[in-house]
Amino acid sequence: MEIVFKNVGYTYGLGTPFAFQALRDINVTIPHGSYTAIIGHTGSGKSTITQHLNALMQPTEGQVLIGDKVISAGTKAKDLKAIRQKVGMVFQFPEGQLFEESVIKDVMFGPMNFGDSEEVARQKAEEALEDVGIDPELFERSPFELSGGQMRRVAIAGVIAMKPEVLVLDEPTAGLDPKGRIEMMTMFDELYKKQGLTIVLVTHQMEDVATYANHVIVMDGGTSVKKGTPAEVFADASWLQEHQLSLPDAADFATRLQAQAGKFLWDSADDMPLTVDALADLLMAKFDLPMADAPSNLEKGDQAIDER
Ligand SMILES: Nc1ncnc2c1ncn2[C@@H]1O[C@H](COP(=O)(O)OP(=O)(O)OP(=O)(O)O)[C@@H](O)[C@H]1O
Q: Domains in the chain, start-ordered, CATH in brackets?
């Protein structure tokens, strides 16, 4: 499902002395089937734009087209239920919203709230819990007996169980350790590939943008200042700096190496290595190193974390 912003603006406290325009002149598209990252420094408007994706907020100016629904100031609440089912939101620290006495009941809550029978809701909940990697042995346990990482997965299963077409993730790995972060991002990537979802990821992690996203929207001062592929958005390091953003570490290293070597290591901006794996490939090729049968950096990193 495609989501289109047409001249969208949003003012908090409209008509009061405390009015603050947080979004202005937004014209962006979240393409159907894309993995879109929304980036931007603190206060640039990411959370505000995100809450327009399932009409939790309605624009005070312009329109948001969510599939075949048009949302503008004053759209009636009765039109919004179908949107809430189609666009699932995972906010920061979603485990804070767990409340039922068992894991399975918590995940069944959403589907039942949208009118599914208990039997259908249970089936959807079991599938969703399997998708997020929760062992069936835990289904009847209290969610509050689980580890923090497991609680977060259960909360995410509660969103996935509603079979959304679009999954919106607002800094979903906040507070996780490096291993938990990689596992969580890998899980979303698998869901994206397996279920044909559209994903919108709000993040401060440029590595995640480079590794998972295929479309990026850059926010600054309440508006979108750039959109494109990760390669297009990361092509200009000084532009990123002006907008208080940075390159992914691999691209930063490669750019410095290129500057120090004083010669081009890649042909066009599209070829700049953005991930550690792409950087490794570039260095292997440039220095004509033989390919060995050794674990990748990522696997070694995982191993090191496991051993700690
Ligand atoms: N409820 C509110 N009332 C008034 N102003 C608000 C409200 N919520 C956010 N703002 C302001 O709107 C602007 C955009 O905030 P928003 O939370 O969307 O930014 P953000 O990019 O998500 O920031 P962060 O990266 O810190 O989460 C900021 O200047 C913020 O202070």
A: 3-95+164-233 (3.40.50.300), 249-307 (no CATH)
pLDDT level of residue 200 (50, 70, 90 thresholds) = very high
Q: What is the per-residue pLDDT for 105?
A: 95
Give the pLDDT confidence of 1-57 residue by residue, as tens digits. 999 999 999 999 999 999 999 999 999 999 999 999 999 999 999 999 999 999 999
**Ligand 1 pocket residue status of 20, Cβ below 6 Å:** yes
Calculate how far, in angstroms, residue 186's C-alpha sits from the geometric centre of ligand 1.
29
Q: How far is the CA of 19 from the centre of ligand 1 (A)?
A: 13
In this structure, what token pair is assigned to residue 154? 């259960």
Q: By the 8 A CB rule, do 25 and 9 touch?
A: yes
| Per-residue buried b or exposed e for 106-142, using 16+ beta carbons within 10 Å of the residue's own CB | bbbbbbbebebeeeebbebbbebbebbebeeebbebe
Segment 98-126 shows an average pLDDT of 94
Which residue, judged by its Cα, is nearest atom 31 of ligand 1? 43
pTM score, two decimals?
0.91
Task: Look at the block and give the residue holding tokens 């399997």.
Answer: 130
> Which is nearest to 250 in space by CA: 265, 228, 229, 267?
265
How large is the ipTM?
0.97
- Using pLDDT thresholds of 50, 70 and 90, give the confidence band for residue 268: confident
Distance CA 98, CA 143 (A): 7
Dist CA 71 CA 233 (whole Å)? 29
| pLDDT value for 165 | 96
Ligand 1 close to Cβ of residue 21 (< 6 A): no
Determine contact, residues 30/2, Cβ cutoff 8 Å: yes
CB 272 within 8 A of CB 255: yes
In the reported structure, the alpha carbon of residue 45 is separated from the centroid of ligand 1 by a whole-number distance in angstroms of: 6
